[in-house]
Amino acid sequence: MRVHLASSLQDALAFKATEPDAWPIAGGTDAMVHWPGAHEMHERTWLDLSHLNELRTVEFRDDFVELGALATYWDVIRDARFTALPLLPQAAATVGAVQIQTRGTWAGNIANASPAADGVPALMAYDAEVVLGSRDGGERVVALADFYHGYKQLEARPEELITAVRVPLRAHDHQDFIKVGSRAAQAITKVGLAYAHSSEGWRIVANSMAPTVCRCAAVETLVAAGTAVAGPDDLADAIAEDLTPIDDIRSTGAYRLRVFGRVLYHALQPICDSFS
Amino acid sequence: MNDRPIQIEFQLNGELRTLEVEPRARLLDVLRYEIDCPGTKEGCGEGECGACTVLLDGLPTNSCLVPAWQARGREVVTIESVTPEDVSRMLDAGTTQCGACTPGVVMTARWAEANPELLAQFDLRQLMAGNLCRCTGYDGIIDGIELPSGQEAD
């Protein structure tokens, strides 16, 4: 196992340019699980970002918020300005418990690319963008909704690091994040839904329902079109078009499809005239 | 930068410590086996049970999920910093039974007690949700935490 303790962002980007296979680590809340026996982890070269204070930032600008790559869930939970983007503290509070929230980062949640990531749906429902840095390529900004190409397949190039996440500051008249898990704390999501409605339209995002966290294009179209929905079953075709959940240790694909339809229906029924 | 030990310096319970750590050592391992602070326990080893909770720069952290080299330059506070007087209410309330979770419970509780403003945003059971206990049913834990006067735990 090799470790490079980055002393600055410039140093980290230079290292990633020469060692593109290096694994960035910040909060470590996923990488370190079952660490002593995780022998494949010990074969890696690690790039420690944890001391890069220039990335430990939360800045509210005129029309967006920039979360530095080391901003944690707890940073957002404890920052009253996030009443403007309430899904972020709401989702953050469902991640593990305090001991995880103080360490886990939003950028790490994106980069780790778990389909069950709880930070990503809220960010995606708000049209967040991922800021990527590299030594030779400068800065590149990618929509989070376009960031995943498949299971653990990222838009980021090997020499790039996530340096920040930008979240547009928009007025949303409807928004929620609903997590179905085995218990309220310390549970990984079986079925997750984030939605937000603004002047830009509907954003409906699912986690633990597909190989990546993803927007539900067919469901968004159905809702925006005002198609009549009399019950959860009327959403099933659109959901099946958007989502392909699997059977795994936490749940089954059939359960996930059934529950997602019900969660979605009961979330939107009170706020959409087309839902009866 | 290879498999060789890494030299780190950090504050442990107010005292500066300098030592070499193996690249794969976790903060938990270093505390227990390198510097003779075995009060911090390993429970699940996957960040779920909270038995290994320490305060890292003042915040509750699962020390099983922290590579030891990430502690460089940080302040670490462990159960060894706590006196019997600090936990007298817990001793009276039946906060501990088998004791496996207790060091972690005490550290999270000490943090909650030191930051009473958190209770405006969370109830105590939410703050303590990262510390699993198989014995007490949690009531003894909640009863053992000293809240600012006027605040009642549910």
SSE topology:
The complex is a heterodimer of chains A (about 280) and B (about 150).
Chain A: E1 2-5, H1 9-18, E2 23-25, H2 39-42, E3 45-48, E4 58-60, E5 64-68, H3 73-77, H4 87-92, H5 98-101, H6 106-112, H7 119-125, E6 129-134, E7 138-143, E8 148-150, E9 153-154, E10 161-168, E11 174-180, E12 191-198, E13 201-207, E14 214-215, H8 217-225, H9 236-242, H10 253-268
Parallel strand pairs in A: 1-3, 2-3
Antiparallel strand pairs in A: 4-5, 5-10, 6-7, 6-10, 8-9, 11-12, 12-13, 13-14
Helix pairs in contact in A: 8-9
Chain B: E1 6-12, E2 15-21, H1 27-34, E3 53-56, E4 59-62, E5 75-77, H2 88-93, H3 102-114, H4 124-127, H5 139-143
Parallel strand pairs in B: 1-5
Antiparallel strand pairs in B: 1-2, 3-4, 3-5
Structural commentary:
The complex is a heterodimer of chains A (276) and B (154). Chain A is 27% helix and 25% strand. Chain A is an alpha+beta fold and 276 residues long. Chain A has a domain at 174-268: Enolase-like, domain 1 (2-Layer Sandwich), CATH 3.30.390. In chain A, the strands form four sheets. Chain A has a five-stranded antiparallel beta sheet. In chain A, a hairpin with a 2-residue loop joins strand 12 and strand 13. In chain A, helix 8 (217-225) packs antiparallel against helix 9. In chain B, a hairpin with a 2-residue loop joins strand 1 and strand 2 (15-21). Chain B is elongated. In chain B, strands 2-1-5-3-4 form a five-stranded mixed beta sheet, with helices on both faces. Chain B is α+β, with helices and mostly antiparallel strands. Chain B has two domains: 6-79, Ubiquitin-like (UB roll) (Roll), CATH 3.10.20.30; 81-143, DNA polymerase, domain 1, CATH 1.10.150. Chain B is built from five helices and five strands; from the N terminus they run E-E-H-E-E-E-H-H-H-H. Classes of the chains: A alpha+beta (276), B alpha+beta (154). At the A-B interface, strand 1 and helix 5 of A face strand 4 of B.
